[in-house]
Amino acid sequence: MLFVKPARPVKKVFIHISASDNPDHDNAATIDAWHRAKGWSGIGYHFFIRKSGQIERGRDLEKTPAAQAPYNRGTIAICISGLKIGKVTKEELAALVDLCWQINDAYNGQVTFHGHREVANKTCPVIDYKKVLGISEKGYLAGTRPDKTKTKSEPAIVVSTPEPASATIRHGDKGFQVEALQRQLVKLGYQVGGIDNNFGDRTRAAVLAFQVDNHLITDGVVGAATTEALSDATPRQISLERDAASIASLATDGSRIADASMKSLATGTAVSVSGIVSLLPFFSDTFKSLKTQLTPVLETFGGMSDAVTYGLLIAVAYLTWQAWRSGAARVEDHKSGKTA
Q: Does the residue 1 lie in any domain?
């Protein structure tokens, strides 16, 4: 077979071994059935290597595997047949070496190779894969690529893995499953407009954004593949431009909330400063000059007692603080992605 790298980014390749040495289970179709029984969208591996050395294609390479959670993102998963080390054949090891070198060449040596046991409390894949593949301490293929003319590579069998219709949540659905979905999306940084158990437009937009970020089919439908990706996903990264936003920058960009907050802050600050100046018992030349400039504002307090003026200043300070809080909340919503 000839490996063609997928469009989604890949950094690691994981090697697995099947959970049975029964000859009847020496095929990707059996693994596919087992994984569907777990509620997955289909076989969790991208490739399955039979004892004969035949390589069968499993999950679409454009989809994230479901093989070594929570380390599925950015990986390719390969499973060899056998369960026990004595059941692994020379033919399948030769096919494994050939496939891994094809992957390595496709990525110009920039991917690393690992056994499932490196990220799980398992002995999988039982073989000495590092020796078989010639893996360096850092995980790269460091050996010599085998002579292609000596490697028997049969055509790959493609295993179809469509998503079961019963496992989907879609636009218009309601209920506890939608609520769980919304909470998971919000936890990951995809805003749904409110946890309301209703798969509406905002929730669908959040699902689409998640699917784009995770290189899934962007149909806005939460099937088994999207559900698997949600369970294995990390929080969404906020862009540097969004993260650097301030009340002033949002106001400049047209945010009415930020603009109102800026104006309230400016007015409140001016009134507070003016009031404080008017209540100072003694003024230096500088303060007297400032008071003269602020006379139009100070006339607002004409005839008022000091106590009333103090009260007014406290009220203005409170309103100014509330304006700041409103602006700060708007900035936080922008940074988190809750607002555009």
A: no
**pLDDT tens digits along 85-99:** 999 999 999 999 999
Helix ranges, 188-305 (H): 201-213, 224-232, 240-243, 247-252, 256-279, 285-293, 295-298
Q: Which two tokens stand for residue 18?
A: 């099947």
In the chain, what percentage of residues exceed pLDDT 90?
41
- Residues 128 and 192 placed together within one structural domain of the fold: no
Q: Kindly report the CATH number assigned to the domain that includes residue 86.
A: 3.40.80.10
If pLDDT is split at 50, 70 and 90, which confidence band does 111 have? very high
Say if residue 289's pLDDT is above 90. Answer: no
Q: Which H or E run contains 55?
A: strand 55-57
Domain total in the chain? 3
| Domain end marker among 232, 256, 287 | 232
CATH number, position 179: 1.10.101.10
pLDDT single digits (tens) 242-278: 556 666 765 676 666 656 655 655 555 555 555 555 5
Is residue 126 included in any domain, yes or no? yes
Q: pTM score, two decimals?
A: 0.58
Asked if residue 6 is part of any domain, the answer here is no
- Angle of helix 201-213 relative to helix 224-232, nearest 10 degrees, comes to 70
Q: What is the DSSP letter of 23?
A: G
Identity of residue 303: G
Q: Does the structure show a pLDDT above 50 at 287?
A: no
Report phi then psi at 76, rounded to 5. -120, 135
The vertex-214 CA angle with 208 and 218, nearest 5°, equals 35
Q: What is the SS3 assignment for 265-298?
A: HHHHHHHHHHHHHHHCCCCCHHHHHHHHHCHHHH
pLDDT digits (tens, 9 = 90+) for 62-85: 888 989 988 898 999 999 999 999
| CB contact burial 246-266 (16+ within 10 A = b; e otherwise) | ebeebbeeebebbbebbebbe
Q: How far apart are CA 247 and CA 228, in angstroms?
A: 38
Range of the domain at 274: 241-336
pLDDT at 128: 95
107, part of any domain:
yes
Q: Are residues 144 and 183 in the same domain?
A: no
